[in-house]
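Bit of a strange request maybe. I'm writing a small parser for C-alpha cell strings and I need a real example to test against, not something I typed by hand. Could someone generate the C-alpha cells for this chain?
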Amino acid sequence: MNNPALASLYTQHVNELLARTAVALQRGGFDHLVIPSGTLRYQVFDDRDYPYAVNPQFKAWLPVTRAPGSWLVITPGLRPKLLFMQPHDYWHVVPEAPSGYWVEHFDIVIIRTPEDALQHLPKDTARGAILGEAQSAVGSCIPNNPQPVLAYLDYQRAFKTAYEIEMMRQAQRIGVRAHRVAERAFRAGSSEFGIHLAYCQAAGQDANDLPYGNIIALNQHSAVLHYTDRDRVPPKQARSFLIDAGASFGGYASDITRTYSAHDDEFAAMIQAVDAAQLKMCAAVRAGFDYKQLHLDAHLALAGVLKEFGVITVSAETAVETGVSSAFFPHGIGHGIGLQVHDVGGFAASDSGGTIDKPAGHPYLRLTRVLQPGMVVTIEPGLYFIDMLLDELKQKGLGGSVDWARVDTFKPFGGIRIEDEVACTEGDARNLTREAFAE
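Reply from user aminoacidic:
Good idea to test on real output. This should exercise your parser:
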C-alpha cells in the first residue's frame, strides 16, 4: 500500500487513539498519558544488553520500534508530543530522525540524554498516567500503570482500526513469503537450523525483529509445542515438518503455522483433514460468537479426525466428555494478536476490568471474550502424539479409548498444527493468512 493511502488510514487510527485516551484518563482521574518507549537492560554480571523490546503502549501510537529512551506525552486538547532520543553515541547506530506519514501528527522534540526529557514531561507527575516498566523512570516520572487506565486501553486494543489491519496484512505477507522458502528448504533436505536461516533470510528479519522465536520442528520434534532447539544436522529420514513462525511490520506481528509431510502418505491425509476442519473453525469467527465455544467446538472436530483415522476407539463426543481429546489437543484454539503475538485483554470482562474465566478443564485457552467486529484472532487447532499426555490417559484408566497401534504409526511424525489470523467483521470472517498465501 502506498504512503498516501497508509497516511489516510493512520489519521483515522491516531484520532481513535486520542478518543480512547480521553476516556481512559477520565476514568482514572488523570490529565496526561505518558508512555516511555523502554530502555536497554544489561544481563546480570555481564556488560551485554538483553534484546531491546519497545513498550507496546508506545508502538500503538507510531511505527517506531527502535528508539530506547524516548517518550510520548498525550494531553487531551493538545497535539501529542514525542520526545525522541538521539544520543551522542559512536558505539552504536543512532536512530534516524523521525520521518514518514505519521510525523505530522506530533510535536517532536529531539533529546540527547534521559535527563533531557524532564524539561518536556509534565511537571505534576501525580496527574499523569505513566505506562511502562519501572526501569524507564527518569526523575520523578515513574511508571504507575493505573488499573482503570490500563483496563480501558487494553480492552479497547482488541478492536483494530483499519490502519492496524493493514499493518497486520503487511506482516502476513512477509511471513508467508518466508514460509514458502522454509517449505522448499525442508523438501531439499535441510536441517532445522538450516530451515530457520532460510526463513530469516527470506523474511529479512532475525531474532531482534521476529515477533517470537521460530518453531522449526522435524519429525518427533513437532510434538514439542514450543520447540526451539533446532538441530544442526538433518535427520536420517525426514518424515514431517511443522513451522510456527511469524514476522513483524511497523510493530505489528503475524503468527502463522503450517505442517507438511515428506510424502503423500497417511500423515499427509491427516494434515489435510485438520486443514479442512481448521477452515471451518476460521469461518465460525462471527460477531457475537463466544470464542470459548469455538474452542470447545474445535475439540469435537479434532476428535472427529482422530476417529476417522482410527486413533481413538470411542465416539468424538465421548472423547471430548472424558478428556481424551485434550491429550491430543492440549492447547487453546488461539488468541488475540496485534501489537503483541498474544495481545492483551484476552480475558477482560469489560473496559472497567474483571475476568472471564476459561472453560473448566481447558487451562491454556488465551482468549475468552465474545467476538466483535475489529477483533483479530488466531485459529490454530493441533493434534499431537505426546508420550507424557498419552501416559496420563493410561494412568486415568482411559487407555481403552485409544488404538495404541495407530498411535505408534503416527508418533514418528510428531504432530500437526495449522494456524491462520482471522479478522472478525460485520459479516463473513476475513482470513488474513489465506489471503496472503493466495497472493
